[in-house]
């Protein structure tokens, strides 16, 4: 990618670089506010694959538990959670550069410092940058449902990916999933229930009410008004 190691790094320098990815990269233009936030905040809050295996105590200059969110969208709920849980460090991964810029702008406005972001493929970040047993929580909220049956294989919640997450989570760590597609919720539950690495935290063996620490998004509020359901799942990493 020329002299830049990520799309966000290029954007922070005011450059656009077309990249080849192993997934569909959502296109979008950076607003002036997002561009400015990237320029100001990326040098401090931006992480990239070239950083290699990270020691979170070095990244954050403390030993607080680390929460990883995959696919944070525009970052609204991630920033709210980081602001509310100062005793945790938060790391977000998003492949939509304008979303990264929006997240950094919100973090800057809220004075949030316990947050770092990647503009990279989550699988590669996990494999190259995240040490085994180093995460206390992983959260994946409203991932692309790929609702057509022929596209189900593209869903991020698959046995191989769940095994990778288990490798990165501490024993006792929590994986929190949420979706507004019932079919995907059922798929998530089936995949998670089949994993010997995890135990369901639901007392009924399926879903849980939305935890207070997961902010209600504008998208979700609109869905509630339209009568749409939302399903939350929480599983804890167990020892073998």
Automatic annotation (TrEMBL):
It comes from the Bacteria. It is an enzyme of class 2 (transferase). It holds the Pfam family Methyltransf_4. HAMAP family: tRNA_methyltr_TrmB. Belongs to the class I-like SAM-binding methyltransferase superfamily. TrmB family. Catalyzes the formation of N(7)-methylguanine at position 46 (m7G46) in tRNA. This is tRNA (guanine-N(7)-)-methyltransferase. It comes from Idiomarina xiamenensis 10-D-4.
């Amino acid at each position: 990618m020329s002299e830049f190691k990520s799309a966000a790094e290029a954007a922070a320098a005011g450059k656009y670089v077309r990249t080849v990815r192993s997934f569909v990269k959502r296109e979008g233009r950076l607003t002036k506010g997002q561009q400015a936030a990237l320029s100001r905040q990326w040098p401090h809050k931006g992480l990239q694959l070239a950083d290699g295996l990270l020691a979170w105590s070095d990244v954050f200059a403390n030993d607080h538990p680390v929460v990883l969110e995959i696919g944070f969208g525009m970052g609204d709920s991630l920033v709210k959670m980081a602001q509310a849980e100062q005793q945790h460090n938060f790391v977000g991964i998003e492949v939509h550069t304008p979303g990264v810029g929006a997240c950094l702008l919100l973090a800057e406005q809220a004075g949030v410092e316990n947050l770092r972001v990647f503009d990279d493929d989550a699988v590669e970040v996990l494999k190259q940058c995240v040490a085994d047993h180093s995460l206390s929580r992983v959260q994946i909220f409203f991932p692309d449902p790929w609702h057509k049956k022929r596209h189900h294989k593209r869903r991020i919640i698959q046995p191989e990916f769940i095994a990778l997450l288990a490798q990165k989570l501490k024993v006792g760590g929590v994986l929190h999933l949420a979706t507004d597609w019932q079919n995907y919720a059922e798929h998530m539950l089936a995949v998670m229930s089949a994993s010997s690495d995890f135990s369901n935290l639901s007392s009924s063996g399926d879903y849980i009410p939305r935890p207070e620490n997961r902010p209600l998004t504008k998208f979700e509020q609109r869905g509630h008004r339209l009568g749409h359901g939302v399903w939350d799942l929480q599983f804890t990493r167990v020892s073998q």
